[in-house]
Amino acid sequence: MLEPHPEGCVIQVAVRPRAGRCRVAGVSGDRLRIEVTSAPEKGEATEQALATLAAALRVPAATLRLLRGARNRHKEVLVAGMPPQEVQSRLDAAPPGGRR
């Protein structure tokens, strides 16, 4: 799920669009599961997933960069300037249920 990268850490993410609320919903297989309320149209679900992840990590959205999966449920997201251990620590400390 978390991989070191020369610029920080890559997170393997699975996005579930049209969920009841926006939240980081745990781990599914080898991916971090993020649920969003947006439909998977015009990149809205991807944008909302990145915003939800940024909120959970307590970083500005500009810290995150989509590497792969703009039109796919499975995505690779780079968290710039943060090693995998720090990302894991922040995910563990994130409130359950995420943001609404």
Order of helices and strands: EEEEHEEH
Task: Please give the largest β-sheet.
Answer: 6 strands, mixed
Tell me the radius of gyration. Answer: 12 Å
Structural class determined from secondary elements: alpha+beta
Low-confidence runs: none
β-strand number: 6
Give me the CATH fold name.
Conserved Hypothetical Protein Mth637, Chain: A
Termini separation comes to 24 Å
Count structural domains: 1
Which bin fits the share of residues in helices? Answer: 10-25%
Could you report the average pLDDT, rounded to the nearest whole number? 94
- What's the level 1 CATH class? Alpha Beta
Strand content: 35-45%
CATH architecture level-2 label: 2-Layer Sandwich
What is the fourth-level CATH superfamily? YggU-like
**What is the count of DSSP helices, taking H or I runs of 4+ residues?**
2
| Shape, principal axes of CA atoms | globular
Model description:
There is one protein chain. This protein is of the alpha+beta class and 100 residues long. It has one domain: Conserved Hypothetical Protein Mth637, Chain: A, CATH 3.30.1200. It contains 2 helices and 6 strands, in the order ββββαββα. Strands 1, 2, 3, 4, 5 and 6 form a 6-stranded mixed β-sheet that branches. The relative contact order is 0.26.
Give descriptors for this structure.
100 residues; alpha+beta; Conserved Hypothetical Protein Mth637, Chain: A; six-stranded mixed β-sheet; 6 strands; 24% helix
How would you sum up this structure in a few lines?
With 100 residues, this protein is α+β, with helices and mostly antiparallel strands. Helix content is 24%, strand content 36%.
